[in-house]
């Protein structure tokens, strides 16, 4: 696999012949990073912290401690509590010790953090409460250690404004929605940037690579940039228990995609957020910057989306294509509501070019990636299946998008007049 340069520090201590005198420290600023798996399954970086002695050779003490298996000595575990910060796209986390392993979020204590430091509470009343909602295995620490996806509340138990999960949970608990067993498959695109210059990985600094074409699902040192990160993330997701279903290189060089699903209901949002957290941690170790900006490079380059595939029980059964058409009709009538909630900066991406529809116009089609909603050839042929909403930006909140899709297609009813008018427009559009 391609090697990725990342900073490291080597601490060297030498013993003189006559006394235990320490020489000055030296540092080597760059070293190659690869991702390895320990016997217990936890990922580790090969970044070196060394203490060199004349008689004992190199001892990598910090790495030994990072991969230390404490299971034989204690029942205690480390839980990493993860939440979404004030920007709505940043992930935050902190660790706590639990007395024993747990299997369900209900076994976990609530916790709190300083919301004034994340843009989520005023300084004079800064306490925000974390409610554990989902558990994943921790691929970094291994063992019985866990990652905990949380949502956020005031001390009075009211969801704070950036808690998008609470609204989605209401929608997905509605009996009408539960009966339809909504499935989601989410395609998360992202871009890797060089750390110091914030320019895509593999691009010449201050310059541009060759035009798009050879990079999508490509192989080779001149076409694929960041494969080690994508592969490490894939394995970390599988280890954690995330329902990841695939990965691929994207159209713009330095851009990648992973897919999560099919996931049912509220589960889809939790799995995407945990997968994003893992990606942030892996790029952190590699010395590469992750961005979910929907149009990281202006000009004749593809943006980054988060296409959301969606189906209900009725769509998956015989006659489902007609149910899909009715869902598309409802989506057309709430186009503005969806666009306003589908990610910041999406207007820079949804231009009608680079496999997108115009942000101002709703459209749908079979096998057409330039539409708002795409229906696959297989779905058309079988007369049942799913639809793909191609409008969400890469930085969208998955709780918001999945909740809106379920609400618009299963709970919201348009007026007969609006429905008839929309049906006429869509008929002309096809």
UniProtKB/TrEMBL annotation:
Name the UniProt record assigns to this protein: Glutamine synthetase
Subunit structure, as described in the record: Homooctamer.
Residue ranges of domain GS beta-grasp in the record: 77-157
UniProt main location, coarse: plastid
InterPro entries to which the protein is assigned, alphabetical: Gln_synt_N, Gln_synt_N_sf, Gln_synth/guanido_kin_cat_dom, Gln_synth_cat_dom, Gln_synth_gly_rich_site, Gln_synth_N_conserv_site, Glutamine_Synthetase
Keyword line: ATP-binding, Chloroplast, Ligase, Nucleotide-binding, Plastid, Transit peptide
Similarity annotation: Belongs to the glutamine synthetase family.
Compartment(s): Plastid, Chloroplast
Reactions listed under catalytic activity: L-glutamate + NH4(+) + ATP = L-glutamine + ADP + phosphate + H(+)
Gene3D superfamilies documented for this protein: Glutamine synthetase, N-terminal domain, Glutamine synthetase/guanido kinase, catalytic domain
Matches recorded under PANTHER family: GLUTAMINE SYNTHETASE, GLUTAMINE SYNTHETASE, CHLOROPLASTIC_MITOCHONDRIAL
Stretches for region Disordered: 94-122
The organism of origin for this protein: Lactuca dolichophylla
Lineage, broadest ranks: Eukaryota, Viridiplantae, Streptophyta, Embryophyta, Tracheophyta
Record GO biological process: glutamine biosynthetic process
Domain GS catalytic residue range list: 161-430
GO (cellular component) term, any one: chloroplast
GO MF terms, alphabetically ordered: ATP binding; glutamine synthetase activity
Keyword check for ATP-binding: yes
UniProt EC number: 6.3.1.2
Lipoprotein recorded as keyword: no
């Amino acid at each position: 696999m391609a090697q990725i340069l990342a900073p490291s520090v080597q601490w060297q201590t030498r013993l003189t012949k006559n006394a235990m005198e320490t020489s000055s420290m030296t540092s080597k600023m760059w070293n190659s990073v690869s991702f390895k798996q320990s016997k217990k399954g936890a990922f580790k970086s090969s970044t070196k912290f060394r203490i060199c002695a004349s008689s004992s050779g190199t001892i990598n003490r910090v790495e030994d401690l990072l991969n230390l298996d404490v299971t034989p000595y204690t029942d205690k575990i480390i839980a990493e509590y993860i939440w979404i910060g004030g920007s709505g796209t940043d992930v935050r986390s902190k660790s706590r010790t639990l007395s024993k392993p747990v299997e369900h979020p209900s076994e976990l204590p609530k916790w709190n953090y300083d919301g004034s430091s994340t843009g989520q509470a005023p300084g004079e009343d800064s306490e925000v409460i974390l409610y554990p909602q989902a558990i994943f295995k921790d691929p970094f620490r291994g063992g019985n250690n866990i990652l905990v996806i949380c949502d956020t509340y005031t001390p009075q138990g009211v969801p704070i404004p950036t808690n998008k999960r609470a609204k989605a949970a209401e929608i997905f608990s509605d009996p009408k929605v539960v009966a339809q067993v909504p499935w989601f498959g989410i395609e998360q695109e992202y871009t890797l940037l060089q750390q110091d210059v914030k320019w895509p990985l593999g691009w010449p600094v201050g310059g541009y690579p060759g035009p798009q074409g050879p990079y999508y699902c490509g192989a080779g040192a001149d076409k694929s940039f960041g494969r080690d990160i994508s592969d490490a993330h894939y394995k970390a997701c599988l280890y954690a228990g995330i329902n990841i279903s695939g990965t691929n290189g994207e159209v713009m060089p330095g851009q990648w995609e992973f897919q999560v699903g099919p996931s049912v209901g509220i589960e889809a949002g939790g799995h995407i957020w945990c997968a994003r957290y893992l990606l942030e941690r892996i790029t952190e170790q590699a010395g590469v910057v992750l961005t979910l900006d929907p149009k990281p490079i202006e000009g004749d380059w593809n943006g980054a989306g988060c296409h959301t595939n969606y189906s209900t029980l009725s769509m998956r059964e015989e006659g489902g294509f007609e149910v899909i058409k009715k869902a598309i009709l409802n989506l057309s009538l709430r186009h503005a509501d969806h666009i306003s909630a589908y990610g910041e900066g999406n207007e820079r991406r949804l231009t009608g070019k680079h496999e997108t529809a115009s942000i101002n116009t709703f459209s749908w089609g079979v096998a057409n990636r330039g539409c708002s909603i795409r229906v696959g050839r297989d779905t058309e042929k079988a007369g049942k299946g799913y639809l793909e909403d191609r409008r969400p930006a890469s930085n969208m909140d998955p709780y918001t998008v999945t909740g809106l899709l379920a609400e618009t297609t299963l709970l919201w009813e348009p007026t007969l007049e609006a429905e008839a008018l929309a049906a006429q427009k869509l008929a002309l559009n096809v």
